[in-house]
Each structure stands twice: as C-alpha cells, then as structure tokens.
Amino acid sequence: MHARTTPRRAEHAGSAWYRQPVAWLGALLFAASLGGCVLMIVLGARHADEALPTGGELMKMPLGEAPPAAPAPAPMP
C-alpha cells in the first residue's frame, strides 16, 4: 500500500527551502564572494607593496617636522 499525502502536505512539499533554485543561487553567490575575500586576503599577505619614492612630501604635506620658525624682529621704539 502506498501512503497518500494530504493536500496540505503536498502543497508544502514543493515549497521547502532546499527545492528553491533561488536559495541555492544565493548560497552559491555568497560562498563565491566569501572565497574571493579569503583569496584577496591571502594574496595581499603574500605580496607586500613596495615603498613609493616620495621626495620628502606626500600630497603636499611634509613628511618630517617643520624647521623652527625664525624669531620675530624686535619692534622699533
């Protein structure tokens, strides 16, 4: 004998989350983006950036301390 499924059970059988292609597509995209993030972190850790020649300024800001200011001239009496 075969067990009959009730209409209610048959209605919900096709709507299980694992039978939805959109859920699998979302899970696949999430896993791919997570894997890409891990790959970028690993590649970034393996290959260090070389220092750029700056010439003492970076974006028109001095990299060191400014020289001390000259004393102000004494006022004339």
Topology diagram in text:
Layout: H1 7-13, H2 21-46, E1 57-58, E2 61-62
Antiparallel strand pairs: 1-2
Largest sheet: 2 strands, antiparallel
- Ranges where pLDDT stays below 50 over 5 or more residues in a row are none
**Rg from Cα:** 34 Å
Physical arrangement of strands within the biggest beta sheet: 1-2
Classification by helices and strands: mainly alpha
Helix proportion range: 40-55%
Distance between the termini: 121 Å
Mean pLDDT: 80
Q: Say how many strands there are.
A: 2
Q: Outline, from the CA principal axes?
A: elongated
- Strand/helix succession: HHEE
SS summary, helix count: 2
Strand content: 5-15%
In summary, what is this structure?
The chain is mainly alpha-helical. Helix content is 43%, strand content 5%.
Structure description:
Keywords: Membrane, Transmembrane, Transmembrane helix. The chain crosses the membrane at residues 21-43. This protein has a domain at 21-45. The protein is 43% helix and 5% strand. The chain contains two helices and two strands, in the order ααββ. The chain has a two-stranded antiparallel sheet. Strand 1 and strand 2 form a beta hairpin. The protein starts with 6 loop residues before the first helix and ends in a 15-residue tail after the last strand. The model has no long low-confidence stretch (mean pLDDT 80).
